[in-house]
Amino acid sequence: MKISVRFTLLLLLGSVPPSESTDYQQTFPQDIYAVLRETTASLVQLKADMRLLLTQVRQVAFSASLVNTSYSVVGPSATDITLIFKFVVTNIGNAYNSTTGVFTAPVRGAYNFEWTVGANGGTSGAVLVKNSANVFLAYEQVAGFMSSSKAVALFLEVGDVVFVRVFVNSVVFDNLNHHTTFSGHLLFPM
């Protein structure tokens, strides 16, 4: 087998005129190993840079409650009210805005959100909103204290917003025990 391959190569090389064979020759540096070392070093650096970028993008998580130490009741109101969770425990990636109460997706992917609303008598209802669409409602109608929780996985594009809104005529309660909360995190980018 080796003889036939060598013979075929010799025939092919012998069939190319000398004037044409030099046109396709490439010049290589004297020290090919130095070039390979430089290329390997560049690839290692690019890989490290990509790992850092992916790590930064994937780190998105927040958790907040309405208040830190005081007592707060939101509602009842004749209109829906966006809850602004002021006491931020975690905000990795800074995607949650504690001034507006809105989470803005920094990366396209699947996210998980949880919200809990506390009620101290009456009706308590809060809906998770994606952009302008109501997603799921946490609702409770009680004589004493109760809370209601929900969770959902959502696909978000970059710039999509998610927030919690109190329904018309509903009341939400919070104090230093953090009964009313809003949390979310990136499950995985897509």
UniProtKB/TrEMBL annotation:
Compartments (UniProt record):
Secreted
Q: Which N-terminal residues, if any, form the signal peptide?
A: 1-21
* InterPro entries according to UniProt: C1q_dom, Cerebellin_Synaptic_Org, Tumour_necrosis_fac-like_dom
Which Gene3D superfamilies does the UniProt entry name for this protein?
2.60.120.40
Keywords in alphabetical order = Secreted, Signal
Q: What is its main location?
A: secreted
Q: Could you tell me which residue ranges the C1q domain spans?
A: 55-190
* GO cellular component, as recorded: extracellular region
The organism encoding this protein is Perca flavescens (American yellow perch)
Q: Which PANTHER family match?
A: CEREBELLIN 13-RELATED, CEREBELLIN-RELATED
Q: What protein am I looking at?
A: C1q domain-containing protein
